[in-house]
Amino acid sequence: MNYRNVHSTENCESNDCHVFDWLSWSVCEGNCGFQSQYRERHMCCDVYVRPHDQEHCLKHCNLDPDFPLNDTQNCRICENGGTLNILSCTCDVHYHGDCCQDVVKCSDNPCKHGTCQDTPSSFYCTCDPGYKGVDCDTRKACSDGISCQHGGSCRDTGSPGFQCHCTRKYNGEFCENALTCHDAPCLNGGICTDVGGSFQCKCPYTHTGDVCETALSCSDTPCQNLGTCSGPPGNFHCNCPPTYKGDICDTALTCHDTPCLNGGICTDVGASFQCKCPYTHTGDVCETALSCSDTPCQNLGTCSGPLGNFHCNCPPTYKGDICDTALTCHDTPCLNGGICTDVGASFQCKCPYTHTGDVCETALSCSDTPCQNLGTCSGPPGNFHCNCPPTYKGDICDTAKTCVDGPCLNGGLCNDNVPTPGFTCNCPYTYHGIICEKVKKCADNPCIHGQCQDTSTSFTCSCDPKYKGPTCNVLETCSSNPCLHGTCTDTSSGFKCTCVPQYMGLKCDTRKTCSSHPCLHGTCTDAFSGFLCRCDVSYTGTVCDTLITCASQPCQHGTCTDSPTGFKCACESSYTGVQCDTDIDQANELLLPEWFPYLEYTLLSMVSLVGVMAMGCFFLKCCQAFGVIGKKDDDDEDHENQYEDYKRYKRDSIVPLDDRKPPSFKIHTGLEF
């Protein structure tokens, strides 16, 4: 024991009598079984304590003399990989001893479930089936490849491991042993029979399974052939239906057992039987009495009477106890003159149109709407009469008329409908209706493209332009020559007229006047036969619409040049005028430079000439104005002569030398000068 003072390594400064914590244990030392280790702790003791030892320091610090300052304990070191558990070693399987110091050999019987073989280092175990581990001490699990034989199933049970659950016919750790009747395997009174290397149990009807180990209950439906079950598991009872017998109703009755009740007749059918019951009973053995609530009467027969003794009232087409036999024509079933026809095992009545029903038993009335196709009905039940619409005939208006019946009136043409029955009347335009029985009036809107006016017999139409026909339904085309003064062109909307210049209108039937401004490049004058155009000098044509070009050779004594505004003449030296038609030399003959001597003669001649011309013109105009001298009726001829008069005037005119153009020419009419 070391005694520490204030100068020791622990800090004892002003901490007299302080006891420190234990130091760590020392290393375990010694031989196996005698190993130990120790530890100690320090305390502070005043350096002035004398003698300075444990006894006096404990006394100085008022501690018990036995106060421990050191300690010793037993210990153990496990060799060869052993693990220490308190003071006991858990050794590796190849070693043993208190400190795992000894090697295990086969002489130590290490293999728990297997055979041992020594090896240089230790031993080796060959484990039995179902075990594993170095020393075969571990029971295998099912996942370790355990295979239970003969249909056995492997189940893990925790400890001690797997277990094979064998079928009832085998046992053993792996279900490898087959049971025999010697082993008395059959339970619950089952009878055992050896079969080859195994056995078979015949169980009582109350149990089942390979060894009759399972008690049957009613929930297992053991009763066959619709038998009903009652009683506890393993001791139930079957109530069998009338056709079966036995503990579980598995034996069919036969006629030998007289099963049929209530007068039923039994017939063997194979291993069973069949009962033919009277019509008042039913069931496999005729055990159930029928009532009207069971609707025993067939084919809509009506039932009356008590249970087991009912009676069927059959409909007209059937007979028998339960109306199950169809009548035939041999039974003369058809009433009211109906005609009977056999159809297979039954019949069919063809009734007169006044009756209906399977045997013509019901008289029809007008309330039954027997008349077809909108026919009207009158008369008493069973003797009514149908008034048919125009397109149908027959007792009940069920036959469509055809053209053979001559249905169309007022000259209508009849066409049979194909392939559908009936006919169609093509009526004259003054009639309409299914058979042309109605007179058309304006209220029927007959004029398709025109105005309608009623007449005493029918109507008349005033057609719109381009349409014709009694009902204005025909689009007029060029084939009818509609354009009076023009050319015609057919279009999708009818004809179209291109009029000559003097006419206009839809059919070129209106002569133009000046009010329509027909003269494009000139002045217009209304005439008796229409209008007359006086064209500008550069234009020609009836309506002054043609620009005069050099192609028409207008320049009489000169060369021509075309321009956007018409032709232009470059006259020869001796000619002048717009069209170079004035001879300058001829004009100069009257105006020679030597005219001075002849001035008096010339002036007298001119005055005389002018006077004569004026007097002649005056009398001419007066005569024309008063009708003494008539005009030409054709204004077009005046127009044709206009240009010649103009030229003649220019030739007769006296042209001044300083003017290269002739004076303008103006036509005067009436008394205008």
Blueprint (SSEs and pairs):
Elements: E1 36-40, H1 54-60, E2 70-74, E3 83-85, E4 88-90, E5 95-96, E6 102-103, E7 114-118, E8 123-127, E9 131-132, E10 138-139, E11 153-156, E12 162-165, E13 170-171, E14 177-178, E15 191-195, E16 198-202, E17 207-208, E18 214-215, E19 228-230, E20 237-239, E21 244-245, E22 251-252, E23 265-269, E24 272-276, E25 281-282, E26 288-289, E27 302-304, E28 311-313, E29 318-319, E30 325-326, E31 339-343, E32 346-350, E33 355-356, E34 362-363, E35 376-378, E36 385-387, E37 392-393, E38 399-400, E39 413-416, E40 423-426, E41 431-432, E42 438-439, E43 450-454, E44 459-463, E45 467-468, E46 474-475, E47 486-491, E48 494-499, E49 503-504, E50 510-511, E51 522-527, E52 530-535, E53 539-540, E54 546-547, E55 558-563, E56 566-571, E57 575-576, E58 582-583, H2 584-589, H3 599-625, H4 635-652
Antiparallel strand pairs: 1-2, 3-4, 5-6, 7-8, 9-10, 11-12, 13-14, 15-16, 17-18, 19-20, 21-22, 23-24, 25-26, 27-28, 29-30, 31-32, 33-34, 35-36, 37-38, 39-40, 41-42, 43-44, 45-46, 47-48, 49-50, 51-52, 53-54, 55-56, 57-58
